Every structure is written in C-alpha cells, then in structure tokens.
Amino acid sequence: MGVQLLVPIKPLHLAKTRLRTARTLPEEHPELVTALAMDTVLAAATAERVREVLVVTSDAVLTRRFRELGVEVLPDSPRAGLNAALRHGDHLLGARGTKVRVGALQADLPALRGTDLDGAIAEADSERSYCADRQGSGTTLLLAAGGDALRPGFGAGSATAHRESGAKALLGSWASLRCDVDTETDLRAAEALGLGSRTGELLRRNDPKPNRTGIGCSGTV
Questions:
Q1: Phi, psi dihedrals of residue 55, rounded to the nearest 5°
Q2: Strand (E) positions, the chain?
Q3: Which among 38, 40, 33, 39 has a CA at the least distance from the CA of 11?
Q4: pLDDT tens figures, 137-185
Q5: Annotated binding residues, as ranges?
Q6: How far apart are CA 86 and CA 92, in angstroms?
Q7: What would the CATH number be for the domain defined by 3-205?
Q8: Of all helices (H) and strands (E), which one includes residue 117?
Q9: PANTHER family under this entry (predicted)?
Q10: Binding residue numbers for phosphoenolpyruvate
C-alpha cells in the first residue's frame, strides 16, 4: 500500500533563518534551502514503503524546481504555516479519493537514507506515530493511522505535542531520519552521516581550495 508523504516547504525568503554558515555566501541561502529539500525528497522517494512524495509549497521557484524533477507539488493555499499546509495537503488527497495513509516529513534532512525511513514506517505499523529529531524535542516524521487525518502539531516542542496527542514514539536508531538541519552545528552532524549530492556539491563548491603551489603562509616574528 505505502505511505503518501507530504513535505511542506516555506517560501525561500522565510526558510531556515537560523541556518547561517560560513560555507555558503549570504546570497546562496535560497540555494542551500533548495538543496536540503531536494536531497530530502529524492531520498524519501527511494524508500520501498513510500508510495509517493508530494511537496506542499507556495514558492514559485521551488514549485518549478520540483516539477522539473517529476515531483508533484501541491499549493500551500492557506499560507498560514506548516500545520495549515499539511492539513491542506491531507485534505486535497482525501478530496481526490486517492488517500491511503498520509505522513508528514520535514524538508531539512539532507543525509536521509531510504532504508531509515523504511525502518520507521515498519516500526509504526498501522499506528499513528512520530519520529523525534536527534535532540528529542522536534519531530522529523509524523504518520497518520491508516486512512485517518494527519493532525499535525509541528512547532516548538512538537515531539511532546505529538506524544500527548496519542501518537506512538518511534524508537529506532535511524540517524539520518533524526538529523534535521536548523543550524550550522546540525549541518556538520548531517555531513558526518553523508550528505545528499545537491547539498554536498554546494558546500564543496565554497570550501577553501588546497594550496597547489606548496607555498604556505607564515607570519614573521
């Protein structure tokens, strides 16, 4: 049957405002956000237990980029935040008559492996479940039960909110699924796991080039 994953993404000028790294230029921030999201979506699509991945966004650039990859994009017509976008996407799937089992995946998992996502979905079985981030406070994945509504509660302390709403905590050690990227420290943690190609290429492009002359710089005493 498989899970239909909704991946909500803020407009590029509003996304990842805490993620500022010396490894990209300020004007490259939208490109970094796009790379994080693309690596996440493409990795999720490789999971055997995922039926389809759908992006939810109102950003015209993201819409075009994902459609070029063959990814379906749903409009974020409420434009009222992450949870409203997810509820809207859930509603659209239900209105189409194509809804099977819906999940929500954060768009900032550039080290994601499809096998980790498969493991989490398998542990969830048919129950409403969530996977906390590596700090244990946020949520990277939320799965509805069967054909039920998603009932997202993302935001500060979302792991607690989802647990208190009756969702089962998924306890497997899926490092790549738990490693969301909000800060430069998070980005380094994801890099240690192995970044997706787009994020990795962007960072490597700006890394200092090795000194090919063999002449180093030294100070004078």
A1: -90, 140
A2: 3-8, 50-57, 72-75, 102-105, 129-132, 139-143, 168-169
A3: 33
A4: 999 999 999 889 999 999 999 999 999 999 999 999 999 999 999 999 9
A5: 139, 155, 158
A6: 10
A7: 3.90.550.10
A8: helix 114-124
A9: 2-PHOSPHO-L-LACTATE GUANYLYLTRANSFERASE
A10: 139, 155, 158
Cβ atoms of 44 and 114 closer than 8 Å: yes
Confidence at residue 144, expressed as pLDDT on a 0 to 100 scale: 97
Instruction: Say what the pLDDT of residue 221 is.
Output: 30
Residue 22 vs residues 58, 63, 69, 93, 169: alpha-carbon distances, Å: 28, 27, 29, 40, 35
Helix (H, G, I), strand (E, B) or coil at 168: strand
Selection from 140, 152, 149 nearest residue 99 by Cα = 149
Which residues, 6 or more positions from 147, have their beta carbon under 8 angstroms from its beta carbon? 99, 100, 101
Residue-range domain boundaries for the chain: 3-205
